Amino acid sequence: MQTLALVAGGPLEELPDLNAFNNEETKWIGIDKGLLYIINAGIDPYHAFGDFDSISDSEKENLKKLSPQLSIFSAEKDKTDTELALDWAVQQQEYSKIILFGATGGRIDHMLGNIQLLIKYKNINKTIEVIDRQNQMRLYQPGTYEMKKLADKKYISFLPVSEKVKGITLKGFKYPLTSCQIELGSTLCISNELIHQAGTFSFLDGILLGIRSKD
Fold it and tell me: Where is the Thiamin pyrophosphokinase thiamin-binding domain (predicted)?
């Protein structure tokens, strides 16, 4: 699967090991300070976006030499650097998956904004995941999905991001559900677990945010 890996400038301690996700089918995109994270991990960047107001002028000049494509924007703009980078990424037809790193932790306004960007792109024909050291999240549209047990992520949570989510059914989970409805603000589906190697979840209407987390 051809993948675009976008690395934003969130706290370094929230990043997983980027090299664990690096392979020949993945292109790496730096977002502002995230470009430094990519380079410091020994990974060659493919593109970069940002106003780069969080780094020094000397660092910025070095980045211009290291990144083959560098889109620099004014600090005064109507979209965040992350949104601008995602706008570009979703238009790259040859890539079917986008992973966003460095989008959580630190400033809560940026973190919440980054998670809400998943809603903006809910209708694109690509998978977008947000991954940090502890969590992995993505948005789901109505349908039936299989989930396999992951050794390093015990907990599975589902949060409604539409006013209502109808017909939720969970099979193979510690806390099963059958044709349940939850509303925005509900915590009913937080901290569930798979009891087998795989389980399924399905729903009929609405939008769910699925989150897989470590202990």
Answer: 143-209
Q: What is the CATH number of the domain that holds 55?
A: 3.40.50.10240
Could you write out the three-class secondary structure of the chain? CCEEEEECCCCHHHCCCHHHHCCCCEEEEEECCHHHHHHHCCCCCCEEEECCCCCCHHHHHHHHHHCCCEEECCCCCCCCHHHHHHHHHCCCCCCCEEEEECCCCCCHHHHHHHHHHHHHCCCCCCEEEEECCCEEEEEECCEEEEEECECCECEEEEEECCCEEEEEEEECECCCEEEEEEECCCCCCCCECECCCEEEEEECECCEEEEEECC
Q: Say whether both 95 and 181 belong to one domain.
A: no
- Residues 164 and 62 both lie in one domain: no
Q: Which domain holds residue 168?
A: 139-213
Do 114 and 68 lie in one domain? The reply is yes
At 61-100, the pLDDT tens digits run: 666 666 556 555 445 567 888 999 999 999 999 999 999 9
pLDDT in tens, 127-145: 999 999 999 999 999 999 9
